[in-house]
Specification:
Layout lengths: L3 H11 L3 H8 L3 H8 L9 H13 L39
Helix pairs in contact: 2-3, 2-4
């Protein structure tokens, strides 16, 4: 499973554009564009998703599912879950600058 934000972040980490990712994965640029424009988890042709994930993996990207630990170590980026708040919880005070 890969989300659109993960895909955009992976491409940014590799320093490649959509055209280069399309070439690496054997997909079309419009397919990459549709995937990146998805809301949340990318849905689509299973074969296309497998090609995309394989291309990212070959380029050194490790996709980390929510709550999972990176198995291969190395540097990485993970989007932290927003802190849960209760309806009665006051907003934190503004930071002084």
């Amino acid at each position: 499973m890969i989300t659109a934000p993960q895909l955009r972040a992976a491409r940014a980490l590799l320093g490649i554009d959509q055209r280069q990712l399309a070439e690496l994965s054997g997909l079309s640029v419009p397919t990459i564009q549709r995937m990146e424009a998805s809301d949340g988890v990318i849905r689509g042709n299973v074969d296309s998703l497998m090609k995309l994930i394989a291309a990212l993996g070959s380029a050194g990207i490790e996709l980390i599912d929510e709550g999972a630990v990176s198995q291969s170590g190395g540097r990485g980026v993970r989007l932290a879950a927003p802190p849960e708040s209760t309806p009665n919880e006051a907003a934190p005070p503004p930071r002084a600058e």
